[in-house]
Design brief:
With 305 residues, the protein is α/β, with parallel strands linked by helices. The chain has two domains: 148 residues, Rossmann fold, CATH 3.40.50; 138 residues, Rossmann fold (3-Layer(aba) Sandwich), CATH 3.40.50.11900. Helix content is 50%, strand content 15%. The strands form three sheets. It has a four-stranded parallel beta sheet, sandwiched between helices. Strand 1, helix 1 and strand 2 form a beta-alpha-beta unit. Helix 5 packs across helix 6. It is globular, with a radius of gyration of 20 Å. The N and C termini lie far apart (61 Å). The structure holds iron/sulfur cluster. The site of iron/sulfur cluster has 11 residues, from helix 3 and helix 11.
């Protein structure tokens, strides 16, 4: 049995959890390739114009898995209770994928995470196992092992970032959803460009997520979206350690456009660069803006010495 997972959207947050879970159940996992031109064009083709760039890429990644696996895994994730809701796209994604690819002979599989409706991850993944003829307990065991592996992987990311933080140099916090920060089309070129400019990029998702989720209120009180709470909390955590902040948003993202505006109004003592990316311009012109941004920071730091 081969389970396909699109390398897009929440895969970049839950990669270890999802892949470990399926492997623990004895399945082979196929992840779509990193974003390339074909995936980008397919994503555009299978999406409506109103979709954000990140979800357009998701449909390109689904397309890349067709014919290569027995099931494509697309969970429905609505909320994590008091920790916040997710963007409504994540609740609709499975149904949209099933409808979009209905004539491709592809089977999709899902599970529902909705803590407000008493469906936490443990229940969702234990029930998911039943769909493969496994028992509820086997599903629960696979989930617990996957959760443990995911926590260890996150701890390694945090330690790597702490080592960067200890280095001398211009430090810039890059703030965006994991699927934007780690995508080869959206965030990775920005991180590489900063490194080439001799700056040290720190990523807003390489943090203790539980800890940052409790401190977003220091900057902004009313944030319904869980991931945006974490991003604002990461800004609060790193505020005194970084020389500047870059906000990366995939056009047209509702949650980010609201929150970025709020961040720019509230965080006035750090240079902030707001980058809005869409499938038309890709990264054209971004390098020049990054160069100017790093120059401004260098100048400010020089002026402070
Ligand atoms: S939060 Fe924004 S970028 Fe993410 S899926 Fe929703 S609209 Fe797209």
């Amino acid at each position: 049995m081969k389970i396909g997972i699109p390398r897009a959207l929440l895969y970049h947050r839950y990669d270890v959890l999802w892949t470990t879970y399926f492997r623990e159940l004895g399945f082979e996992v196929i992840v779509s390739p990193v974003t390339n031109k074909t995936i980008l064009e397919d994503g555009d083709r299978y999406s409506i114009d109103e979709n954000c760039l990140s979800s357009k890429l998701f449909f390109g990644h689904v397309s890349a898995l067709i014919g290569k696996c027995d099931y494509i895994f697309v969970p429905r994730i609505a909320n994590y209770g008091n920790e916040g809701v997710l963007c409504s796209r994540f609740e609709a994604l499975y149904d949209i994928a099933v409808n979009t690819f209905r004539d491709k002979g592809t089977e999709f599989i899902t599970c529902d995470v909705d803590v407000q409706q008493k469906k936490p991850e443990l229940v969702a993944f234990s029930n998911l196992a039943l769909q493969f003829g496994k028992t509820y307990s086997e599903g629960a065991r696979a989930y617990e092992a996957a959760k443990q592996a995911a926590q260890e992987a996150q701890q390694k990311k945090i330690e790597a970032q702490e080592a960067l933080l200890a280095q001398d140099g211009i430090k810039i916090l890059v703030v965006g959803h994991s699927y934007n920060l780690h995508d080869t089309y959206i965030g990775k070129p920005i991180v590489s460009a900063l490194q080439k400019l001799d700056a040290i990029p720190l990523l807003a998702d390489a943090v203790n997520l539980d800890a940052v989720r409790t401190r977003y209120t220091n900057i902004c009180k009313d944030v319904p979206w869980m991931v945006n709470r974490e991003l604002v909390g990461a800004i609060d955590q790193y505020h005194d350690d970084v020389d500047g902040i870059i906000l990366i948003t995939a056009f047209p993202c509702g949650p980010d456009s609201m929150l970025n505006e709020m961040i720019i109004r509230r965080v006035k003592d750090k240079p902030i660069l707001n980058l809005l990316l869409d499938s038309q311009d890709g990264n054209a012109g971004i390098e020049t803006r990054l160069e100017s941004f790093v120059d401004i920071i260098r100048f400010r730091k020089g002026a402070q010495v």
